[in-house]
């Protein structure tokens, strides 16, 4: 990766045509017919989500806090740089240079989020080398999926990028299913959480909850401020309803009538995931609130029952409940988008055509994610990569120095 980082500047051009000497810095994306601008505040909001939000969200494991936060940053930075290179291939063939601006970095970082979602499924069971391979293989797969949907099915870029939740969840589930080792149900005795790790994880969830409206609205054309405002308000309402609903369902599903922190920290985000996948079709507050309510019920119920049943029935160990946090709400958002678009369409022919294309969008996304996830899983399952043994899974000491635990000679 160091070689890639050294070679990248030779192919990237961050200068504008008005500054041939290169003194004025980065290229501007607001000239002519270029895509709408991304502000520094929006970029920083998404950056906080990717680094702090996802990083702390997975620190719920008692002995895996260093790895959860550190490896998250590791994968995010590698995947973002790799996505920048891959997304610039078309520009390289046309202009013999890769143009980099704030928007392209942000889109690359959002593409890298698909790898972070998949990381949650295999968290604690892979080593850093396997994580590098995961990032290097999943990001091209996700960009390929975007290209297919944009070129063949003419999917809007905003709807295209929001499929990252579905793509990342199914990619990660396929990966963890192939990497599953027989007898590991009894071998993961370190897969536990306590009050301190749960608090740090809840902090990450709060970061995600606060900045999710920006995540869903950042790619909305800023030349139509009412649409961007609509996206922000819809996301907030969905998140607010999902937070209340997740708490209620957690209490009702508990034998003692108490809240479950692990359920709460993931399921309060379900509304943001679901409404993001249906953003362009949501125009009324009640629609966003209904989506948030349904997503929270689906996510909390799935979190409580699906994880253990998937392990017993399919040998699929989903560490961070990726299916319940991202997969199911993403599918719900896709379905809500379909229903709302058909409801708002007066022409039956247009409605049927949209339904066919929308279903094909989901089928293509799931097919590519499952296929590439399986190929990545078979590659990562090779003993050549020296995966951690069961007794060393979910343990920071396998990869990090602990001077205070060193034995004095």
TrEMBL record:
The keyword Aminoacyl-tRNA synthetase does not apply. Residues 41-382 form the Ammonium transporter AmtB-like domain. One of its GO terms (biological process) is ammonium homeostasis. Coiled coil: none annotated. It is a multi-pass membrane protein. Keywords: Membrane, Transmembrane, Transmembrane helix. GO terms for cellular component: plasma membrane. It is found in: Membrane. It comes from the Eukaryota. The chain crosses the membrane at residues 46-66, 73-93, 105-124, 131-149, 161-179, 199-215, 235-255, 318-340, 352-382. GO terms for molecular function: ammonium channel activity. SUPFAM superfamilies: Ammonium transporter. Functions as an ammonia transporter. May play a role in the elimination of ammonia in the gill. Belongs to the ammonium transporter (TC 2.A.49) family. Rh subfamily. This is Rh blood group, D antigen. It comes from Oryzias melastigma.
């Amino acid at each position: 990766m160091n070689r890639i980082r050294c070679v990248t500047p030779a192919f990237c051009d961050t200068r504008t045509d008005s500054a041939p000497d290169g003194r004025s810095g980065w290229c501007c994306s607001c000239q002519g017919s270029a895509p709408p601008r991304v502000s520094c505040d929006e970029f920083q909001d998404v950056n906080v989500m990717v680094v702090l939000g996802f990083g702390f969200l997975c620190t719920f494991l008692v002995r895996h806090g260093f790895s959860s936060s550190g490896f998250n940053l590791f994968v995010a930075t590698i995947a973002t740089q790799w996505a920048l290179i891959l997304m610039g291939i078309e520009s390289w063939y046309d202009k013999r240079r890769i143009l980099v601006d704030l928007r392209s970095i942000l889109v690359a970082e959002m593409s890298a989020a698909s790898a972070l979602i998949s990381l949650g499924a295999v968290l604690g069971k892979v080593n850093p080398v396997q994580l590098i391979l995961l990032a290097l293989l999943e990001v091209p797969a996700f960009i390929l999926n975007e290209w297919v949907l944009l070129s063949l099915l003419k999917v809007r870029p905003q709807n295209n990028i929001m499929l990252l939740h579905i793509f990342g969840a199914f990619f990660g589930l396929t990966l963890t299913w192939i990497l599953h080792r027989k007898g590991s149900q009894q071998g993961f005795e370190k897969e536990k959480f306590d009050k301190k790790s749960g608090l740090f994880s809840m902090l990450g969830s709060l970061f995600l909850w606060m900045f999710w409206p920006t995540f869903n609205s950042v790619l909305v054309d800023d030349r139509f401020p009412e649409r961007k405002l609509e996206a922000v308000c819809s996301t907030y309402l969905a998140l607010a309803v999902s937070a209340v609903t997740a708490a209620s369902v957690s209490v009702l599903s508990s034998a003692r009538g108490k809240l479950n922190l692990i359920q709460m920290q993931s399921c309060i985000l379900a509304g943001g995931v679901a409404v993001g996948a249906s953003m362009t079709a949501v125009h009324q507050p009640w629609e966003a609130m209904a989506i948030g309510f349904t997503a929270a019920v689906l996510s909390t119920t799935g979190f409580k029952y699906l994880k253990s049943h998937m392990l017993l029935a399919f040998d699929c160990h989903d560490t961070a409940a990726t299916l319940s946090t991202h997969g199911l709400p993403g599918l719900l958002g896709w379905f809500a988008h379909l229903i709302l678009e058909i409801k708002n369409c007066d022409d039956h022919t247009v409605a049927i055509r949209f339904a066919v294309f929308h279903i094909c969008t989901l089928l293509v996304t799931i097919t590519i994610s499952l296929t590439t996830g399986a190929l990545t899983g078979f590659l990562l399952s090779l003993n050549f990569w020296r995966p951690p043994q069961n007794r060393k899974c979910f343990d920071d000491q396998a990869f990090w120095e602990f001077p205070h635990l060193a034995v004095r000679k």
